[in-house]
Amino acid sequence: AVDAILVSACLMGINCKHNGENNLNEKIIKLCGKYKLIPVCPEQLGGFPTPRPKAEIVCEDLAKGVLKVVRENGEDVTKYFENGAEEVLKIANLMNIKKAVLKEKSPSCGVYKIYDGSFSGKLIDGSGVTTKLLKENGIEVFNEYALEKFL
Ligand code: SF4
């Protein structure tokens, strides 16, 4: 059987980004013949509409690993991000998926980098809410710059 891989839906050209656009990545589309790519957008699955206001992760207590996700106006939207992550994990488990290619820098999908919570475009080391949950559950997560591993 062909392996199934979870992919951030925006990387496959789905207009699920916060601004209603996408992050189409032609290299990922080329993987379609080799793998069964399953597009998921944790933020839509978590209950957000599209378009939606931008959100960033703020670390409440880094030592304890407590994270909060907020909008620029300070509104706490953590629950939506957690719900979305749970739904993506559910899909992975249902389909016995062990690998994911997710969009770097997103507060849901970021793999190695996220914005620092100041809405000033500054990046820090860290991963998105969905990436974290998938990794905690034994799923290998790659960003869109690591596709050579799949070719
Ligand atoms: Fe793309 Fe992930 Fe953001 Fe959805 S949550 S738009 S899949 S980066």
UniProtKB/TrEMBL annotation:
Superkingdom in the source lineage: Bacteria
PANTHER family for the chain: HYPOTHETICAL CYTOSOLIC PROTEIN, INNER MEMBRANE PROTEIN
Protein name, per record: Uncharacterized protein
